[in-house]
Amino acid sequence: MDRHYQILEYEMTQTEAKSFKLALIWEEESHKIFPNESCGKLPIKGDPRKSNLFKYCNKLLRETKGILLDDQYRWYIKAQFYILKNLKNEGIHANISPSCLVGPKAWKRWKVWSSKFNSISKVNFNAEIMVLECKIIAKLKKTKEFLIKQFKKEPNFEDIKNAFTNKTILRWLTLGKICGYYVILSPFIKKCLENKNFEDHFNFDLSIYKQVLLNQNILDFFNKEFNYEKLGETI
Length: 235
Fold this sequence. Notes:
Layout: H1 5-9, H2 14-33, H3 52-64, H4 73-89, H5 104-121, H6 125-151, H7 157-165, H8 168-175, H9 180-185, H10 187-193, H11 198-202, H12 207-210, H13 216-225, H14 227-232
Helix pairs in contact: 2-3, 2-4, 4-5, 6-13
């Protein structure tokens, strides 16, 4: 069951919503890597913000703000699991709990893992750009599919304007139904803002998306897939 509805149910802030999503990633990946162990979970009922898992995910965000990109957090969590699993396999005690996500030792595990991963996989700067490019394009595809499903067609400017005005766009963005890259690139959103700043208008931080260089391949993809927004600019 999709539990993202709890973000709205408990009126989470943007940071709390990110922490909640990290906690869901923790649950998903810990179940894959340690299927027979209890590694910490969010409560089935009640406010998830009161759980230790949520609190450590929130602390992780604070410690790594401006250091890790959104797309790196899943790998960060997996890195902790893989290294700690190797330690356990060697007979060394390893505490597989949410506390392993934070602190100097956690950061050291991340750096060791990412260094070895890059070395083994021969990942260079260009390859990383290609991977990131593919991820952004995939997110834009899902955004388009979601919007078409919602409006039963390719949305026109009035559709997006109404969703913008009643803050449905903000809700979709918070729940991850649309991506921040769409908000940055969309001519319709730009027109709705009327030269205002999205972050100031909605109190939503888009800086994590603006840190990523949107290369020509991504721009070409957007202009092709969302060409109806370009055409709609003159309407």
